């Protein structure tokens, strides 16, 4: 199957031309009969009203085409940083990637973020330089930009042909007759010589290496993730598209996996089909899936039955009786499956790259209060399609809170709620999501033995960990001291207990160890540990105290040289840490790390101060401890477990009423 199959994602920074490239691929492969336009809202993969209106991609769009007897599953991903979660989920299920760079803009911060994720997952990648028809484009400058910021192993496999400075075509340096590609061949031969001693000897001796051997060797290196072919074109004009499709077949690998092996796959997308209902997109890594099969959602211990399997070929949905390892399909009947769920064994499923981290929280209001129940249902449906929205519903306060990436995402949510659900909403100004981490090592203890009947005694060791570690939980208690079913209940409740720390924020970057546990033969019920665990955890946090953490972003700002001094002054005021600025061609560029809290509105301010010529791009850079004196608290949901008497009454009443 690998020889006749490819799973390829298209990735890039905003406005690099991903959707236009996808449109041309579908057109030139015969999937669609007429070209759509991003600007006119007629692009094939932009299906949402807001995508058509704004000319941007919001959702990853999956389709397929056939080229030279090879079926290619193609996923067009959004380019804006606010929708990086869609990019992240798509990365996980790809065997190969096309990374598009605009010849006019070069490598951007978003490009580098995606590149790092591609390298982390070892995904073979073609670099496609779009917009080569723009005036005053220097191929040398473009390649220098790519090799310095991405990889020195980025190697051009095409030549660009011009007629009187007008782009005519892109041609392969290996198979096209009548072109002089000795310089490009030499670049590739030098790179190969650095990798292989035998090849080095041939190169030093001046042996002329046949072009087909060069291509075969470089293709093998690409499939192993060691080299990256660079292609060129103008997607707007359809130049270089067929050559790009050839490169997909020539350089990117087919999927691994055994169709006869144990079932293993992952859910990477959920959407609602107007006629069919809830569609769950699954990438299979191993085994086969048939209609009417009962599948196990391993990470949540659920079983569901497949009622139908469909595959998109252009605008047509093709019914399949089955699909197998290496393929992607929309599966129906899985009503409980969520994005990220593992179907069958998790042994063959790659990890998430961890790029998408919502940094802002916002409260949403319905303009018509009578539609409040409808708004809850709509947001639950949207959270099903994007779990990172992290919907929090405070029933008693009648409040709805979401986690978002930025202001553009809020505009999109507002539009979707109106067009899809008929709900007019407003959002409060977004606020930064802080976190907490233990300030020192310590212990938490709880003896929950009153009011009877109950008995749960727990002792936890709490230790801070390096930034980015998240939560590490383990137990040192033997099952003959505390039964396994009780320990499992504790393990489930520890992450929940850490959702709200002393200041109301999630507690992270810590190790929690259960060092002692005790139950009573007659009086203990498993629910006693539901009550006891948060009290023990919060007792420990109260002893060690917590440090407030704030989210940081990598930034790159480029402004006219005359604005450079003012920008540097503003960066200092915003507590940014940055390198010395770089000045070239009348532009000042500065890079560094900046707190989200101080720079939330700065991109808008920068555009205003520079009359639209200033550009700021950002990417997530993790959390850091706040400086002394910064205080940020969040209203606690429910009763604080440190007020043990009230907490026990509140939880026991909730348990008894359920």
From TrEMBL:
InterPro entries the UniProt entry points to: EF-G-like_DII, EFG_II, EFG_III/V, EFG_V-like, G_TR_CS, P-loop_NTPase, Ribosomal_Su5_D2-typ_SF, Ribsml_uS5_D2-typ_fold_subgr
UniProt xrefs under PROSITE patterns: G_TR_1 (PS00301), G_TR_2 (PS51722)
Pfam families cross-referenced by the UniProt entry: EF-G_D2, EFG_C, EFG_III, EFG_IV, GTP_EFTU
Record carries keyword rRNA-binding: no
Origin superkingdom: Bacteria
The Tr-type G domain, residue ranges: 3-256
Keywords: GTP-binding, Nucleotide-binding, Protein biosynthesis
Cited NCBIfam families: small_GTP
Protein name per UniProt: GTP-binding protein
Source organism (scientific name): Paenibacillus shunpengii
């Amino acid at each position: 199957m690998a020889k006749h199959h490819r799973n390829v994602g298209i990735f890039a920074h905003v406005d690099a031309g991903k959707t236009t490239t996808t449109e041309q691929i579908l057109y030139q492969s015969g999937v669609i009969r007429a070209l759509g336009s991003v600007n006119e809202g007629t692009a094939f993969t932009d299906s949402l009203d807001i995508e058509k209106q704004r000319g941007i991609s919001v959702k990853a769009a999956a389709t397929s085409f056939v080229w030279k007897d090879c079926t290619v599953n193609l996923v067009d991903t959004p380019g804006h940083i606010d929708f990086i979660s869609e990019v992240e989920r798509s990365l996980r299920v790809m065997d190969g990637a096309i990374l598009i760079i605009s010849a006019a803009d070069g490598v951007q911060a978003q490009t580098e973020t995606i590149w790092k994720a591609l390298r982390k997952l070892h995904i073979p990648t073609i670099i496609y330089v779009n917009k080569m028809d723009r005036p005053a484009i220097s191929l040398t400058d473009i390649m220098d930009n790519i090799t310095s910021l991405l990889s020195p192993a980025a190697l051009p496999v095409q030549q660009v042909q011009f007629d009187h400075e007008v782009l005519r075509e892109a041609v392969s340096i290996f198979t096209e007759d009548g072109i002089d590609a000795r310089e490009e061949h030499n670049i590739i031969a030098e790179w190969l010589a650095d990798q292989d001693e035998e090849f080095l000897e041939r190169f030093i001796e001046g042996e002329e290496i046949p072009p087909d051997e060069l291509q075969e060797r470089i293709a093998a290196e690409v499939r192993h993730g060691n080299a990256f072919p660079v292609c060129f074109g103008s997607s707007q004009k359809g130049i270089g598209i067929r050559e790009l499709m050839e490169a997909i077949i020539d350089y990117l690998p087919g999927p691994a996996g055994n169709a006869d092996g144990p079932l293993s796959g992952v859910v990477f997308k959920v959407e609602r089909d107007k006629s069919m209902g809830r569609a769950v997109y699954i990438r299979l890594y191993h085994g086969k899936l048939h209609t009417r099969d009962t599948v196990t959602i391993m990470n949540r211990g659920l079983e569901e039955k497949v009622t139908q399997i469909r595959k998109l070929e252009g605008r047509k949905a093709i019914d399949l009786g089955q699909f197998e390892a290496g393929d992607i399909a929309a599966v129906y009947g899985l009503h409980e499956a969520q994005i990220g769920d593992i179907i069958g064994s998790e042994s063959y499923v790659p990890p998430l790259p961890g790029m998408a981290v919502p940094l802002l929280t916002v409260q949403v209001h319905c303009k018509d209060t009578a539609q409040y129940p409808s708004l809850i249902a709509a947001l639950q449906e949207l959270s099903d399609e994007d779990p990172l929205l992290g919907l929090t519903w405070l029933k008693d306060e009648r409040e709805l809170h979401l986690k978002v990436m930025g202001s553009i995402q809020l505009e999109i949510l507002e539009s979707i709620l109106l067009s899809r659900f008929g709900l007019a909403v407003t959002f409060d100004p977004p606020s930064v999501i802080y976190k907490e981490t233990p300030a020192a090592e310590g212990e938490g203890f709880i003896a929950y033995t009153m009011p009877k009947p109950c008995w749960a005694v727990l002792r936890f060791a709490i230790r801070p960990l390096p930034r980015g570690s998240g939560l590490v939980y383990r137990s040192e208690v033997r099952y003959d001291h505390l039964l396994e079913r009780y320990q499992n209940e504790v393990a489930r409740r520890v992450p929940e207990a850490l959702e709200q720390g002393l200041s109301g924020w999630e507690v992270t970057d810590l190790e929690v160890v259960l060092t002692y546990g005790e139950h009573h033969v007659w009086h203990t019920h498993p629910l006693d540990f539901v009550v006891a665990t948060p009290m023990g955890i919060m007792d420990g946090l109260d002893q060690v105290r917590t440090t407030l953490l704030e989210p940081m972003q990598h930034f790159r700002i480029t402004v006219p040289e005359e604005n450079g001094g003012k920008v540097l002054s503003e960066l200092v005021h915003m507590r940014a840490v940055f390198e010395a600025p770089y000045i070239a061609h009348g532009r000042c560029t500065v890079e560094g790390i900046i707190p989200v809290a101080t720079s939330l509105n700065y991109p808008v301010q920068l555009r205003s101060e520079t009359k639209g010529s200033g550009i700021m791009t950002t990417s997530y850079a993790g959390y850091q401890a706040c400086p002394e004196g910064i205080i940020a608290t969040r209203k606690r949901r429910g009763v604080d477990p440190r007020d043990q008497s009230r907490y026990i009454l509140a939880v026991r009443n909730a348990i008894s009423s359920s």
